[in-house]
Input
Amino acid sequence: MIRFFDILFSLFGLLVFSPIIVFLYIVGLFETGSPIFFQERIGRNKKPFILIKFRTMEKSSKSVATHLMDKSSITKMGAFLRKSKLDELPQLFNVLLGSMSLVGPRPNLFNQLELISQRDKLNVYSVRPGITGLAQIKEIDMSTPELLAKTDAIMIEKMSITLYFAMILSTITGSGFGDRIKVN
Output
């Protein structure tokens, strides 16, 4: 049932937000020359997939976890995109294609070995990663791998249609900053 809502909401979101997506793409072309960011992440059953986002950092930025990034590498438009969460809009394509869900554990990089180990212990990779989830709503980022994995496992165990909608609503209304560089 959740996959049905993922498809429905991602299609709806892509249709409704397509003017904004196109506008941000064009503005991003002027700022970085490459407004879309593709990065390999770990998906369901530890299968790699390509995450799609709007670029918020300089093209020369290293591929490391967000909490390890230097905030000086964030572009002017990138700061706005991060604060508004609009950098996540292209991930609706990931949801539509089935590599992600709207709600689930945030997908991590392959070089985050401690987090991978903690998530393996708790079977977190048994579900699709998500755009938002309990850890993001509780402002838990990837800098605390054990706590993050435990929070992900709790979310997976308690997942229901009600919780799915509650997390989406919480994110839309202002929660969900767990995976972000703190920008002023």
Summary: The CA atoms of residues 56 and 77 lie 7 Å apart.
